[in-house]
């Protein structure tokens, strides 16, 4: 289902999510702040013409510019508003009836060199119904008057945005005696006349008067909360004002989470080159496949005409060449990237805002928990944090994070704080896993570094090119990449201390602890010295990677939020491996990790610590204050979980294959969700099948998971080709990669220059 004309949908259709959140059909509405509204309307003149209902809309609109405004103007008169700091003028003109006076005012803007308003919002009818007691003659006169005004509005619409606001329904039971003649039947007749005349008058689509009919739908849901049965409650008119702001400002401000009325962004130079590359890859793969198919047919076994028996083929299936594998990978990747682009850059599919409810988060959590427990199997090994267990841990955490994102649960602070712990746990595993590898293997070769960097960054680099986003936008990958390099530098710098060397002399353990203390000191210094941190990452070429919106503040914030947890992971790995080497822990199948008394005591402390953190996180009042404490205390719940999961032998001996499967593609799931499960760069939800929310989630999730799995396979295949074990070949590949990034930088500079 196509997204269609999102401007038309924004003005005419939608529904409420909950009681106050308005969801336009097919697109996302941005919530404008005062500063954004001022930037959009700078040097603009806006005019509202009509009755008391239009006056209400006028006040809601100017409150988006200045929230301190009070509704103290003359009720039946003109009301001016001016924001001198941004040179914005907004006027309300009192014309309660569509008559000659209104026509004369509108006509004055069409004559000569008179400055025309940039936005004109017009609407009136209830006064005509009231004054003429709902007579048919008044309706006939209304039709004549609006017919005479329509060409003038159309003429203004050539250079200005003109909106005709249809009349909202009334709550007849609450109307005063003097307004009893204003019935919904009469209002419908007036609205029908206005729509018919305005639509028939618009011959030129560029000069079309936009009919603001969405207010009717909003009023139908909220008019019963009206104070007098005629005027909308404040929340409803605020929604109407926000819709007006989105209609006009989205194409100017281009907010990420405001897809309504935004034109499709033009293809950049780099995107065009990428498109050509993937197209050539697909053509190349098809040509090679056809050649191989023809060769196979020539060598295929044929029937012996004399004996009637079938001969076996003379040669075996040909070996797949490196070129063919490369083209095959890029062919699949090209098709996948096309889907990415269509989902989140083209206006092909619908997008909707998120709306959080407790049920939308906790019910899917309970569902996947049941599935995870159902697929329980025995582990191949029973060591602490063995491969199956870490995959399981990554898997269930990733599923919880995905549900958190699609449900919009970040607005609920207790859930947000627990999700912060899950992100910290990923980084804890980064510290634990890479430290363990370097400590045990002692392999500090270039091959290992390149393999890890390629697997972490390949998908993100491709998305930066195809989706025209900076590297720092996918913040988690830069985070784990930098921490990997920090771990590598800490252990690889002289003196290189590894387990084999330390076993010969215990003093080396103190040397390693000294390295870790130096690392902790550097982390502490950078976390409290924003200036030093920003200077380091503002140098070229680091600035190209870590800047977002022209500065590295976002990168500093993300790094600072979990600054100690990687160190905690490294320290835990060091202590655990030391205890394991001295056989101070028991890792046999079914055996508790320590003696029964120690195991029970540690288990009790872990459960209490786990629950204590959850209670503290649930009692958080302020996100900023809790984020300040989070780096120091998140390790409490992480260590508590590890001990609870590993101390009892029977728990350590099993794992969930369901969660582990997702854990193997957790990085791809985390990155792919940005564009093909969520929408508008995670701000909204992708809608493939409108009108059926559950079915839509099922279909989009199935495609999303399949794509993530396929990308994981492509990354693994390409890693073997791009990062070979042979050092001389690897050096040549690194030179090619350096050339690729140099070319990318060159085209990026050209692109930026053309934009400016």
TrEMBL record:
<keyword id="KW-0472">Membrane</keyword>
<dbReference type="GO" id="GO:0047186">
    <property type="term" value="F:N-acetylneuraminate 9-O-acetyltransferase activity"/>
</dbReference>
<keyword id="KW-0012">Acyltransferase</keyword>
<feature type="transmembrane region" description="Helical">
    <location>
        <begin position="506"/>
        <end position="526"/>
    </location>
</feature>
<feature type="domain" description="Cas1p 10 TM acyl transferase">
    <location>
        <begin position="253"/>
        <end position="734"/>
    </location>
</feature>
<dbReference type="GO" id="GO:0005975">
    <property type="term" value="P:carbohydrate metabolic process"/>
</dbReference>
<feature type="transmembrane region" description="Helical">
    <location>
        <begin position="269"/>
        <end position="291"/>
    </location>
</feature>
<dbReference type="InterPro" id="IPR012419">
    <property type="entry name" value="Cas1_AcylTrans_dom"/>
</dbReference>
<protein>
    <recommendedName>
        <fullName>N-acetylneuraminate (7)9-O-acetyltransferase</fullName>
        <ecNumber>2.3.1.45</ecNumber>
    </recommendedName>
</protein>
<feature type="transmembrane region" description="Helical">
    <location>
        <begin position="600"/>
        <end position="617"/>
    </location>
</feature>
<dbReference type="Pfam" id="PF24536">
    <property type="entry name" value="NXPE4_C"/>
</dbReference>
<keyword id="KW-0325">Glycoprotein</keyword>
<feature type="transmembrane region" description="Helical">
    <location>
        <begin position="452"/>
        <end position="468"/>
    </location>
</feature>
<dbReference type="GO" id="GO:0000139">
    <property type="term" value="C:Golgi membrane"/>
</dbReference>
<keyword id="KW-0333">Golgi apparatus</keyword>
<feature type="transmembrane region" description="Helical">
    <location>
        <begin position="325"/>
        <end position="343"/>
    </location>
</feature>
<feature type="transmembrane region" description="Helical">
    <location>
        <begin position="685"/>
        <end position="709"/>
    </location>
</feature>
<feature type="transmembrane region" description="Helical">
    <location>
        <begin position="396"/>
        <end position="417"/>
    </location>
</feature>
<feature type="transmembrane region" description="Helical">
    <location>
        <begin position="659"/>
        <end position="679"/>
    </location>
</feature>
<feature type="domain" description="NXPE C-terminal">
    <location>
        <begin position="22"/>
        <end position="72"/>
    </location>
</feature>
<keyword id="KW-0812">Transmembrane</keyword>
<dbReference type="InterPro" id="IPR057106">
    <property type="entry name" value="NXPE4_C"/>
</dbReference>
<feature type="transmembrane region" description="Helical">
    <location>
        <begin position="474"/>
        <end position="494"/>
    </location>
</feature>
<keyword id="KW-0808">Transferase</keyword>
<comment type="similarity">
    <text>Belongs to the PC-esterase family. CASD1 subfamily.</text>
</comment>
<feature type="transmembrane region" description="Helical">
    <location>
        <begin position="730"/>
        <end position="750"/>
    </location>
</feature>
<feature type="transmembrane region" description="Helical">
    <location>
        <begin position="355"/>
        <end position="375"/>
    </location>
</feature>
<keyword id="KW-1133">Transmembrane helix</keyword>
<feature type="transmembrane region" description="Helical">
    <location>
        <begin position="561"/>
        <end position="579"/>
    </location>
</feature>
<dbReference type="Pfam" id="PF07779">
    <property type="entry name" value="Cas1_AcylT"/>
</dbReference>
């Amino acid at each position: 289902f196509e997204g269609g004309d999102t401007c038309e949908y924004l003005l005419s259709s939608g529904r409420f999510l909950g009681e106050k959140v308005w969801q336009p059909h097919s697109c996302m509405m941005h919530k404008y702040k005062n500063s954004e509204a001022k930037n959009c309307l700078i040097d603009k003149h806006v005019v509202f013409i009509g009755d008391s209902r239009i006056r209400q809309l006028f006040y809601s609109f100017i409150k988006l510019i200045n929230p301190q405004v009070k509704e103290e103007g003359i009720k039946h008169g003109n009301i001016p508003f001016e924001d001198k700091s941004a040179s914005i003028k907004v006027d309300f003109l009192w014309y309660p009836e569509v008559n000659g006076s209104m026509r004369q005012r509108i006509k004055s803007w069409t004559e000569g060199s008179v400055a025309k308003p940039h936005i004109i919002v017009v609407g009136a009818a209830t006064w005509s119904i009231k004054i003429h007691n709902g007579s048919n003659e008044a309706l006939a006169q209304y039709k004549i008057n609006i017919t005479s005004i329509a060409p003038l509005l159309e003429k203004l619409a050539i250079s200005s945005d003109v909106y005709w606001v249809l009349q909202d329904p009334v709550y007849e039971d609450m109307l005063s005696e003097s307004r009893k003649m204003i019935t919904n039947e009469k209002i419908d007749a007036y609205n029908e006349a206005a729509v018919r005349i305005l639509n028939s008058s618009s011959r030129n689509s560029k000069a079309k008067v936009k009919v603001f009919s969405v207010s009717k739908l909003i009023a139908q849901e909220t008019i019963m909360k009206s104070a007098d049965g005629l005027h909308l409650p404040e929340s409803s008119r605020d929604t109407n004002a926000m819709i007006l702001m989105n209609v006009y400002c989205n194409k100017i401000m281009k907010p990420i989470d405001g897809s309504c009325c935004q034109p499709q962004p033009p293809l950049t130079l780099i995107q065009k080159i990428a498109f050509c590359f993937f197209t050539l890859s697909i053509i190349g793969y098809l040509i090679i496949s056809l050649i191989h198919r023809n060769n196979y047919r020539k060598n295929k076994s044929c029937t012996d005409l004399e004996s009637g028996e079938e001969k076996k083929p003379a040669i075996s299936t040909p070996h797949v060449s490196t070129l063919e594998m490369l083209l095959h990978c890029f062919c699949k990747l090209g098709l996948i990237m096309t889907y990415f682009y269509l989902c989140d850059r083209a206006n092909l599919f619908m997008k909707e805002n998120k709306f959080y409810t407790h049920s939308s988060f906790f019910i899917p959590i309970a569902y996947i928990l049941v599935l995870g427990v159902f697929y329980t199997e025995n582990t191949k090994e029973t060591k602490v944090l063995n491969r199956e267990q870490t995959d399981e841990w990554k898997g269930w955490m990733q599923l919880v994070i995905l549900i958190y994102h699609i449900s919009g649960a970040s607005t609920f602070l207790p859930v947000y704080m627990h999700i912060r712990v899950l992100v910290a746990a990923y980084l804890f595993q980064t510290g634990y896993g890479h430290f363990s590898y370097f400590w045990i293997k002692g392999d500090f070769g270039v091959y290992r570094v390149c393999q890890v960097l390629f697997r972490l960054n390949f998908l993100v680099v491709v998305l930066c090119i195809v989706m025209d986003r900076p590297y720092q936008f996918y913040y988690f990958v830069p985070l784990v990449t930098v921490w990997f390099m920090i771990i590598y530098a800490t252990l690889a710098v002289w003196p290189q201390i590894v387990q084999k060397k330390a076993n010969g002399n215990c003093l080396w353990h103190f040397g390693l602890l000294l390295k870790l203390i130096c690392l902790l000191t550097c982390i502490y210094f950078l976390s409290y010295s924003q200036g030093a941190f920003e200077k380091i990452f503002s140098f070229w070429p680091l600035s190209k990677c870590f800047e977002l919106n022209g500065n590295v503040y976002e990168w500093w914030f993300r790094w600072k939020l979990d600054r100690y947890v990687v160190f905690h992971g490294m320290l835990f790995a060091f202590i655990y491996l030391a205890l394991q080497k001295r056989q101070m822990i028991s890792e046999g199948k079914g055996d508790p990790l320590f003696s029964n008394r120690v195991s029970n005591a540690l288990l009790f402390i872990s459960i209490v610590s786990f629950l204590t953190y959850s209670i503290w996180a649930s009692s958080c009042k302020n996100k900023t204050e809790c984020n300040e404490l989070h780096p120091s205390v998140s390790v409490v719940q992480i260590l508590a979980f590890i001990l609870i999961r590993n101390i009892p032998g029977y728990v350590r001996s099993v794992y969930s294959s369901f969660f582990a499967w997702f854990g193997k593609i957790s990085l791809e799931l985390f990155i792919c969700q940005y564009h093909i499960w969520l929408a508008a760069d995670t701000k909204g939800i992708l809608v493939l099948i409108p009108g059926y929310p559950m079915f839509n989630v099922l279909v989009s999730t199935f495609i999303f998971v399949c794509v993530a799995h396929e990308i994981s396979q492509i990354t693994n295949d390409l890693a073997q080709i791009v990062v070979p074990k042979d050092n001389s070949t690897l050096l040549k590949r690194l030179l090619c990669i350096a050339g690729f990034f140099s070319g990318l930088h060159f085209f990026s500079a050209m692109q930026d220059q053309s934009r400016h």
